[in-house]
Write a structure and sequence with these properties.
39% of the residues lie in helices and 18% in strands. It is an alpha/beta fold. Strands 1, 2, 3, 4, 5, 6 and 7 form a seven-stranded mixed β-sheet that branches. Strand 3 and strand 4 form a beta hairpin. Helix 1 packs across helix 6 and helix 2 crosses helix 4.
Length: 216
Amino acid sequence: MTAYRLVVVSAGLSKPSSTRLLADRLAEATVRQLGSTGRPVEVTVVELRDLATDIAHNLVTGFPSAALRGAIEAVTRADGLIAVTPIFAASYSGLFKSFFDVIDPDALTGKPVLIAATGGTPRHSLALEHAVRPLFGYLRAVVVPTAVYAATDDWGTAGDRLTDGLPGRIDRAGGELAALLGGRVPAARPEQPGPASGKAAEAVVPFAEQLAALRV
């Protein structure tokens, strides 16, 4: 039985990271609630902290490193995505935005995405709605209704009479992503290029040659 491919993108910068912790909790909730489908789930975590230099090089050269290419392919082929960023200056981090800048703009079209963020104060929670959700709307992804924001004070609290605590919000968001994934057939696995498949490796034109051609 084909497994769902769930990719988690975490833009946390520290170790240990509350951003990574929130990403892991969301993945656990989604996998648990996908259990009713009977299909296995493959979870891949992309830590942008480890790719920061590769992303910067890709922005100025146009060519991804092998590690960054693997991360981009994982996101592109995913059946569902969980994207978590720390909030800096009332918006997503530059590293988070730069990673999605180097991905093909059509790669996320129609893909279910759960968005989440962490911050030091609850006053930045609307950054998910005025910055992160519009970003994925521009990329034509299908963003689940519940976006999860976790301020420092949210960890270990039970919420109030109007708002669920963090565990409740995580379960609700994971359930919404699982419901979207459960209604989809996992994407077919692409044939790996190689001698057996008869596909030739893509030719890479050096950047200097491309630049010289532009000057003609």
